[in-house]
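Progress report, Aim 2. The chain analyzed during this reporting quarter is listed below.
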Amino acid sequence: MYNTKSVGDNMLLCNVTEDGMEIIQLSPDGNIQPLFHQNAPQFPFNQTCEQYMVSIRNHFVEDSHMYENILILEDMEKKEEKVIYSTLWDNENGIGEDLGCVSINNETVCFTLNKEYKDKKSEHVLFLYDIEKEKIVEEIPLRTRVCYAAYGGEGGLLLSETDDSKYLEEAGSLGYIEDGAYVETAKVPLISASNLIRDARYTGEGYYFTTVDAAYYWNTKANEIFVFDNQWLENKKSRIWASDDGLKYVGYDGDNTFIRTLWVR
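Predicted structure tokens for the chain:
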């Protein structure tokens, strides 16, 4: 069972089953509530903010040769789900549309789409979905595949790029959206193809984000960077994530399990 996110005091866990994966919600009193199930073995990409959960869910179709990527926004208070985007990927031939990553704040869902063709160059696109308006409001072409993208409000964007055909030494960047395009303003130090950003959250002053080797807070307004070394987590690196409150991780004390938060004030 793998930790994915938290909603208030509750944990979201991904449980591997015989026929796929399921996401469950675990409360402090031990109550378990199933949220959704998928029949494909890929980890569902889950992100949360306040009462919202957004997830990329994977379902095999047509004898497992193809699978659906479905991006779903759920209001966990109202128990309402809405499909934002749906794609179909040919797993056998490696062509079609494949949802890449997703992030969320209380106003906007940010997600990427990779389009692979048989006879022409791949395309990579970033979308912004307005939760209140219930529609996609921006469509931004990207130069390469993106491992993670976090929207910072007022057009701000944090990108972590990856490219199978080229080792990117500077794979992280800050920038903004203007006239339908991404304008890069700064590189993120220490981010490379071997240490990609995999989770981030904008706080109003800057970004909390995590990588394979460390976690960061970049106050973009003051241009100050704080680095948290992940080594002290003792092989629990996958259990640290970014939130509005700071960097959260699962801690242990004997038989007790708890969530701690690191933040910059």
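The chain has no helices and 23 strands. The longest strand covers residues 80-90. These observations will guide the mutagenesis work planned for the next reporting period.
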